[in-house]
Amino acid sequence: MFFKLVWKEWKENLWKLTFCSVVSLAFVALLLRVRIIPDAAVCALISIIQLFVVPIVYCLDIFSGEMSNKTIHLLFKVPVERWKIFMSKYLVSIFSIALVFILSSLLMEFMSFGREMEQGYMLKNNLLNGVAALLLFTWFCPFACQSRSEAGSLASMCGVAIGFGIIFMWACSCKIKWALPFVPYIFIIKHTFYSGFLELIDMIKIVLSQALSVSVAVSIACLRYTKIRRYL
């Protein structure tokens, strides 16, 4: 039954994957072919746009759609635990978001091969932005898994993105180092400004911190989703 739920979510959200992939690949091909700006600027521009736009496309109706269309009543009659319903939505979304970034990263690296950028830089940079996007979407889930409207979901996604930005600025300005590994943007900052053996040690700490953060976020989201009132 769980795999049927995953297949249902995949079919319902396939248009999002198609839309995001086509638009991303089109902009990558256009900007790298025309070369109005340097390749590094193209990579940064597209990566940052994808970082915020792709999660927003997926967040709008992933939970609120079932409530606004009243199909959640039928969905909750399926003989399967509610947390599995949530996980089917979550897994399909993060897989699709990751796929968008992988495709655009491969195209960036292919079109920039042999040009001014160091080999592998654009691929790594865009993929790290993809990791940040997945983390932002994961933290969106606890706040919006009970949302009843697309506007509420959009506000939650924007709040998560801005909130982590505020936390990052607060941690940097107040020199609170323990908070930095929990910020999704830290992967991008580390890749852009730091290198060497010490970065590898710091990256291990960041990965462990983010793994703990994701576990907490998914657990809270599952708990909140199971607490949705049966009659809304």
What does this structure look like?
- The chain is mostly helical and 232 residues long.
- The chain has one domain (2-226).
- The chain is built from nine helices and no strands.
- The mean pLDDT is 87.
The ordered H/E elements are: HHHHHHHHH
Shape: globular
Mean pLDDT value: 87
Number of helices: 9
Question: What is the structural class?
Answer: mainly alpha
Bin the helical content: over 70%
Could you list the spans in which at least 5 consecutive residues all have pLDDT below 50?
none
Tally of strands: 0
How far is the first residue's CA from the last residue's CA? Answer: 24 Å
Strand residues, percent = under 5%
> What composes the largest sheet?
none
Please supply descriptive tags for the structure shown above.
mainly alpha, 9 helices, 77% helix, 232 residues
Short description:
This protein is mainly α. It has one domain. 77% of the residues lie in helices and 0% in strands.
